[in-house]
Amino acid sequence: MPASGPQTPALHVVIRADAAPAIGTGHVMRCLTLADRLRALGAVVRFICRAHGGHLSDLIAARGFAVDLLPAPDATFAAPGHAGWLGATQAQDAADTLALLSGQRPDWLIVDHYGIDETWQRLLRPAVGHILVIDDLADRVHDCDVLLDQNLAPAGAARYDGLVPAHCARLCGPRYALLRAEFAAARAALAARDGSVRRLFVFLGGADQHNDTGSVLAALAGMDNIETDVVIGGANPHHAALARQCAALPGVRLHRQVDNVAALMAQADLAIGAGGGAMWERCSVGLPTIALALAENQRPGCTALADIGGTLYLGESGPDNGARLAAALQVARTSPGLLRHMSATGLALVDGQGADRVARRLVAQGLADSLTLRRATMADCDDIHAWRNAEAIRRVSGDTRPVALEAHREWFAKVLTDTERVLLLGEIDGRAAGVLRYDRSGAQATVSVYLTPAYLGKGIGPALLAQGSAWVARHWPGVDTIEAVIRPDNLASSAAFASAGYRHEFDIYRQRIQA
């Protein structure tokens, strides 16, 4: 990214998320990770949480964020499914949240709550700039501008077809996993794994309401001595009993609400853990895992990761945990090749940069809101030639060779008069930000796109593509499909197209032969 370029204003961000024994701590914890990254980019972040038991407001405040509590849940409130987790009706929760906003209009409202859907979001919509929803259930309709689902699912972003507005950008997959910076640091210093098991890591969630940690420790009691780190959250209601269990097992250490989880994972050779966000943490440091699903929403991610060989998944936690874990540990300790494969799969899937990608996407929204399109003219010819020949652009282009200026001018003049082609220039505050070219053939158009060097890495690619699609819809009404050809190593471009609603459908194989 260039050292100079357009500056983005500081953002005002409000996060609505809850923690409670029934909800767990994961929603608040991943929002804290995103909040840390947003603050590092200059944003001002504030949390709004309902005063459930175990609401974590002290932890949020200790991390340096303002936090306001909604009234404690009405003990008589009841609702089916996840709606009951809100502790109030969506209308009441929305009214309480609006009252805390006190007329202030945040640039972004981030919502991470299974009990909230479009009903709540539409009530807040007039009072905020944009809405980001963090979800992984894909079971309800949202009114949002960006949808974040960090989990692995065979259907990918298509899970949300019909559940989010057409303009909504979908950030789906472990590429966007909200991991703390410590995981990227641990990954950078990671030693090669040989598949042997000398050290075990155990973590079954911050709340661990049903004491799955205890059942794992019971299973370990019958194993040969193995050095083991057991991590529990500060709100774990079973910590006293777990401390006694750990003390009775040689080589087993108990860690409560520690801040070096990434280092402990990196030092371990095998983990026993749950699905959810911790699964992507383990993948980021290549830690092979025996996984249990502790909640319904963890099953799809665990299954998807197991299907590609990324984990040894035992199904849902239950009374037979001990027998299943003992058998799985025996397999893992005698299968170094299996553990190396799981490690490599996890490392390839999660690079630990997801929080940064999401935060930059939100910061870029101010730029995207200012983005406009216009047709290119001959006056743009030489500038577009310079951008097209920039090394950063050519490196990811289909044809990486520089183009001579005279040849470019000849081609440019033809394009401007070709009714089946159009060149569009994206501008932000009058400054060129990106170039789109559409080639029409019947009902299909092919798009070629790049950002100008000043806007590389600013996160405006999806917005540029969305505006281009809208232009095609307005001016070429017979076109019903737009396709793009992307180099397989151009992950940033692939992510931008996916976020803009494009689907990966085909791979192209090419052989160059002598004439």
TrEMBL record:
Q: Where is the N-acetyltransferase domain?
A: 371-515
User: Per the database entry, which stretches of residues form a coiled coil?
Assistant: none
Enzyme Commission number(s) of this protein: 3.6.1.57
The reply on keyword Protein transport is no
Keywords attached to this Swiss-Prot or TrEMBL record, sorted alphabetically, are: Hydrolase
Question: What is the top EC class of this enzyme, as a single word?
Answer: hydrolase
Protein origin, superkingdom: Bacteria
Molecular-function annotations in GO: hydrolase activity
Query: Per the record's keyword annotation, is Hydrolase included, yes or no?
Result: yes
Report the PANTHER family cross-referenced here. GLYCOSYLTRANSFERASE (PTHR21015:SF22), UDP-N-ACETYLGLUCOSAMINE--N-ACETYLMURAMYL-(PENTAPEPTIDE) PYROPHOSPHORYL-UNDECAPRENOL N-ACETYLGLUCOSAMINE TRANSFERASE 1 (PTHR21015)
Name under which the protein is recorded: UDP-2,4-diacetamido-2,4, 6-trideoxy-beta-L-altropyranose hydrolase
Q: Which organism is it from?
A: [Empedobacter] haloabium
Gene of origin? pseG
